[in-house]
């Protein structure tokens, strides 16, 4: 039997400064993060939730018309938490633009923002969204305005791209090929000739043919402007990585009780352990617990008996067969979760029963919060 994850103890602990909800896509990370943030605020924490989900349903559930790239306080009639609740949705491009404006200086910032190569990588470069989520987390932590930050990580099939992104993005931007391509602007044509030798003209012609001469020029100009802020780029990534490994951070892995989702959750748990990341536990989301102590065989036998009776009871038969299906589903989920806990015996688990309908308001989020707390 796995230890039960005490979610209230986690969010009530003043030493808990960051909670990161991670897991594969489609398992309810966004709703879980919002429900935890709401519960924390109502229990007295100054809380901000950072979501990556572009769907507007979360904003609507929080009583806001929309979420933007900067935190907005949730203030609706009848909502009077002991603490405060703020929410925001990551805008990847705006976060990148803001970072450039702050760290590059006015003149170089304008050069970067207008550069076509920058406009391409700021929206489509591999790892950009994950890195900008890290950047925004670092910004929120640096303000000191909130004592609890809850992060909904980007949906990703690859485990913990959120953690890998700073290294991957900075390595790519500092990679040999980009440095090679940008050599002419930074060191003059002779600098590049030294690297590629006598074949410079052939090399430059080939590169221009493959990626286009204008793109080569844009990339070169981009790296010139970017060089001045590159050190800060890596330094902030390093500080945020340290924050994620600190004792004040807790990772909550969210998974549905399905084979693929739990397999991905196992991968997350193992990776967190390898990276020495502080794991709080697993949320088994949308489970289907049995509502009555009646086995599936007995329910089916009773249904068959009623069907053969002189006065059939079709409604009772339908309910009994539905109950038998529910018992079979619950047993299947129990087996899957038992397999997970056997593989990871030290990971606390809390099951969150599925709701009959989608969450569309604060009451729905509050209901999920109660279930997260074992209520």
TrEMBL record:
InterPro entries: ArsA/GET3_ATPase-like, ATPase_ArsA/GET3, P-loop_NTPase
Domain of life of the organism encoding this protein: Bacteria
Ranges of residues in domain ArsA/GET3 Anion-transporting ATPase-like: 16-288
Organism of derivation: Amycolatopsis albispora
SUPFAM superfamilies on file: P-loop containing nucleoside triphosphate hydrolases
Name of the protein this chain belongs to: ATPase
Gene Ontology MF terms: ATP binding; ATP hydrolysis activity
PANTHER family: ANION TRANSPORTER ATPASE-RELATED (PTHR10803:SF26), ARSENICAL PUMP-DRIVING ATPASE ARSENITE-TRANSLOCATING ATPASE (PTHR10803)
């Amino acid at each position: 039997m796995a230890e039960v994850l005490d979610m209230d103890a986690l969010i009530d602990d003043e030493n808990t400064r960051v909670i990161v909800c991670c897991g594969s896509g489609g398992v309810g990370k966004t709703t879980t993060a919002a429900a935890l943030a709401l519960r924390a605020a109502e229990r007295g924490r100054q809380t901000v939730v950072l979501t990556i989900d572009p769907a507007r349903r979360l904003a609507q559930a929080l009583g806001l018309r929309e979420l933007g790239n900067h935190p907005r306080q949730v203030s609706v009639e009848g909502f009077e938490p002991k603490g405060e609740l703020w929410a925001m949705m990551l805008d990847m491009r705006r976060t990148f633009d803001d970072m450039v404006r702050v760290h590059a200086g006015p003149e170089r910032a304008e050069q970067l923002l207008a550069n076509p190569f920058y406009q391409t990588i700021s929206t489509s470069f591999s790892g950009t969204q994950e890195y900008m989520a890290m950047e925004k987390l670092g910004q929120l932590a640096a303000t000191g305005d909130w004592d609890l930050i809850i992060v909904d990580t980007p949906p990703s099939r690859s485990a913990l791209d959120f953690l890998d992104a700073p290294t991957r993005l900075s390595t790519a931007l500092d990679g040999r090929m980009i440095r090679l391509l940008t050599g002419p602007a930074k060191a003059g044509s002779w600098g590049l000739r030294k690297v590629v030798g006598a074949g410079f003209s052939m090399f430059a012609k080939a590169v221009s043919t493959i990626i286009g001469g204008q793109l080569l020029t844009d990339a070169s100009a981009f790296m010139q402007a970017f060089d001045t802020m590159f050190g800060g780029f890596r330094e902030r990534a390093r500080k945020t990585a340290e924050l994620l490994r600190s004792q004040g951070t807790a990772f909550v892995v969210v998974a549905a009780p399905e084979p693929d989702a739990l397999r991905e959750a196992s991968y997350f748990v193992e990776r967190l352990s390898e990276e020495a990341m502080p794991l709080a536990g697993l949320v088994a989301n949308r489970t289907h617990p049995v509502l009555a102590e009646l086995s599936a065989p007995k329910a089916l036998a009773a249904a068959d008996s009623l069907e053969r009776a002189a006065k059939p009871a079709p409604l009772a038969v339908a309910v009994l067969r539905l109950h038998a299906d529910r018992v079979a589903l619950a047993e299947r989920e129990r087996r899957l979760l038992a397999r997970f806990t056997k593989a990871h015996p030290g990971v606390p688990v809390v099951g969150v029963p599925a709701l009959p309908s989608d969450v569309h308001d604060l009451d729905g989020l509050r209901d999920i919060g109660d279930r997260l707390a074992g209520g």
